[in-house]
Amino acid sequence: MPSDRTRSTVPSHSRPEIRLAEMLLTTLREELRSGVWPGGVLRTYKGISQKFGAPDVVVRAVVRVLRDEGLVTIHAFSGVRAAHRGALPTHGPFTVTDLITSTIRKRIGDHEYPPGTPLPQRTALAEEFDTTVQALQVPILQLTLEGLVRPHLPHEVPGTYTVDHRQADREARLLADLEAAMRLGCWTRGEFPDAVERALHVLIGSLSPQPLAPPPPR
Questions:
Q1: Which of 26, 147, 159, 193 could be disulfide-bonded to 118 (CB atoms 3.0-4.6 Å)?
Q2: Which alpha helices (H) appear in 69-158, and where do they start and end?
């Protein structure tokens, strides 16, 4: 039986949903920068969703990231318009979704929500912003795309956690060392199973922040 804490923490988005959002963000950003999606052209949320097979919550989170990068403008009733090259960024009306996102972002920056810790209970956040639990989905996914929050790891209580960038750096260095070891040892990917990699992710917090030294020459 799950505990109250397990049931009430801010839910994390599934990893497949996050990967889909990341791919959509990369694709739309490239379309906007290359001119495939020309400046001034309007797209609807529904049209983007149907073209890329992405749920509405994913499209809305991605669009907000692009808006904050100055690549699109959001029109409440008509959709999303590509910004003209060189135009000054415009934010548009400040919505409850924007308020939730900016407030959580500031609290993370101020370490009110310390690195590597779970966000508060979803019911408490919904009550604070006088909204529904479902309304937290877009802000949480946007902050995930910004690299500020992440889903829980297998050994953690289910929920959404702030990113500990120091640990993320250690993990990146470890994986780089493993890739180098694979090249030096002439391993194939099949000889380094996913289970080993997942186990190393769990153990990473106890490892030295220094990268592994290269093996001595033979």
A1: 159
A2: 96-109, 122-128, 137-145
The answer to whether the CB of 181 falls within 8 A of the CB of 133 is no
Which candidate, 2, 3, 18, places its Cα nearest to that of 160?
Answer: 18
For residues 27 and 29, what is the distance between their CA atoms, to the nearest angstrom? 6
pTM of the model: 0.72
Taking the C-alpha atoms of residue 44 and residue 56, their distance in angstroms, rounded to an integer, is: 11
Secondary structure of residue 186 in the 3-state scheme? coil
SS3 of the chain: helix, strand, coil, percent, to 5: 55, 10, 40
The residues, ordered by sequence, that sit 6+ positions from 114 with a Cβ below 8 Å of its Cβ are: 162
CA 125-20-36 angle, 5° bins: 115
Phi-psi sector, 92: left (phi>0), alpha (psi -120 to 50), beta: left
In a 3-state reduction of DSSP, which class is residue 86?
A: coil
In which order are the strands placed within the sheet that holds 42-43? 42-43, 79-82, 72-75
Give how far Cα 48 sits from Cα of 27, 58, 62, 145, Å. Answer: 11, 10, 11, 18
User: Following DSSP, what letter does each residue of 141-180 receive, concatenated?
Assistant: HHHHHTTSEEEPPTTSPSSEEE--HHHHHHHHHHHHHHHH
Reported as a single tens digit per residue, the pLDDT across 24-68 is: 999 999 999 999 999 999 999 999 999 999 999 999 999 999 999
